Amino acid sequence: MEILRLNQISPDQVILWQWGFVKITATLAYTWLVMAILVLGSWLVTRRLSTGPRRSLWQGVLEVVVTSIRDQICEICHEDPGPYTAFVGSLFLFIGMSNFLIIFPGYVAPTSSLATTSALAICVFLAVPIYGISRQGIGPYVKEYFQPTFIFFPFHVMGEFTRTLALAIRLFGNIMSHDKIIGILLAVTPLFFPIVMHALGLLIGMVQAYIFSILAMVYIASAVQAHEEGEPANKGSR
Predict the structure, then answer these.
(1) Domain region containing 87
(2) Which of 79, 87, 113, 116 has the lowest tally of Cβ within 10 angstroms?
(3) Do the beta carbons of residue 11 and residue 106 sit within 8 Å?
């Protein structure tokens, strides 16, 4: 498997099953695996939730994770984190679990595929105007793209695309490069050093999940609050 990882630049190129034009790649298989773990884990943890003093260990862990996510969102947007928790939390948990599973031999993180990171970035790209329009209305939201003058419209649009591309490339580059380094080290060095690199990679993976989720929330908060920040100045000018 390590030789396969060295020869393939992306898990998209590893075809596990094919029938005609239908292909199941390593990216797709491992993505399904991560989704299954998250769905099954959430069902097992939440099927017997308790509000009393006696709670299960896994419920306590889940409450810590959810509370931490909500606190981080609140620090960014300074308002009720409820509307954003599900989306931002899902991003963090999916990316975090995808990167955490690299501790198991033979596993390749789906986030080392540009297709996966691009899909995640597109979700953020679509979420920004959805949240912005839901808060401001479509008229005021679109108006922001023409500030301070209509000449800046293409630059605002370009900025939206470039930051989406940067999200995808950053996550893909960090995870993919570390994955290839591990493969090389396992092929040419003793066991100890690759284990250290795996531990470092696990830390990097969690940090990347945190950064991606935080940047997504920053973009959403900027879209939601841009119009509201301009209102006091406009009222004052009247």
Answers:
(1) 2-237
(2) 79
(3) no
CA distance 117 to 172: 6
pLDDT digits (tens, 9 = 90+) for 42-54: 888 888 777 777 7
Per the structure, how many domains does the chain have? Answer: 1
pLDDT in tens, 134-155: 888 888 888 888 877 778 888 8
Q: From 105, 225, 216, 218, select the one nearest 168 (Cα to Cα).
A: 216
pTM for the whole structure: 0.81
Q: Distance (Å, rounded) from C-alpha 34 to C-alpha 106? A: 14
Task: Identify whether 83 is preceded by a cis peptide bond (ω within 30 of 0).
Answer: no
Which helix H or strand E contains 7, and what residues bound it? helix 2-7
CA distance 91 to 99: 12
